[in-house]
Write a structure and sequence with these properties.
This protein has a 3-stranded antiparallel β-sheet. With about 180 residues, it is mainly α. About 35% of the residues are buried. Keywords: Membrane, Transmembrane, Transmembrane helix.
């Protein structure tokens, strides 16, 4: 058996890798909650304060797999675009939550909330400045609303991860992880 697999231990929905104990349940709930907060933030902020269509964000996300054809017309509803955006968004949200699990230790909700906010800002930079070479249409999303949404995403990610990973919520005393 390889040295890595000897050090990788699974116990229910928790797994340990060298230097980190990851709660799978915390990753899933943190990814779902923060992903929902991000979408809700933009669905409110973009139309209310920036005059953007509520369908602009799903179209920008869906274009990651559907190409620029998903971007037009930007202000109309399209079920296939919306479904693609939701799937892409929550898959990425779960992946980001897993990455955060190596940063957030789940010991302090306050510390993980702050770490999550910083993580959210780092994601903003990655998504809207570095990823624009792959997805140039992300450039149009550089605004204060997406910064706020990323701060909210990260803060919720950190808080929910810490709460679940520490067993403060989502843990039944009789349950065996």
């Amino acid at each position: 058996m390889s040295n890595f697999t000897e050090r990788l231990h699974f116990r229910g929905l928790h797994f340990t890798v060298p230097g980190a104990h990851i709660s799978g349940r915390a990753v899933v709930w943190a990814g779902l909650a923060s992903g929902l907060v991000y979408l809700a933030s933009l669905a409110i902020l973009m139309p209310l304060f920036l005059g953007a269509s509520p369908w602009a964000v799903p179209r920008v996300i869906a274009a990651m797999t559907q190409g620029s054809v998903a971007l037009t017309p930007i202000d109309t509803f399209d079920m296939s675009v919306l479904l693609a955006a939701i799937v892409i968004h929550f898959v990425l949200s779960m992946a980001y939550a897993l990455v955060f699990a190596f940063i957030g230790k789940g010991h302090s909700i306050a510390a993980d909330t702050v770490a999550g906010a910083v993580f959210g800002l780092a994601l903003y930079v990655v998504n809207y400045y570095l990823a624009t070479s792959l997805f140039p249409w992300f450039e149009q999303m550089r605004n204060w609303a997406t910064v706020v949404a990323h701060l909210a995403y990260g803060s919720v990610l950190g808080a929910v991860y810490a709460a679940y990973a520490s067993g403060r919520i989502g843990h039944h005393p009789a349950a065996k992880d």
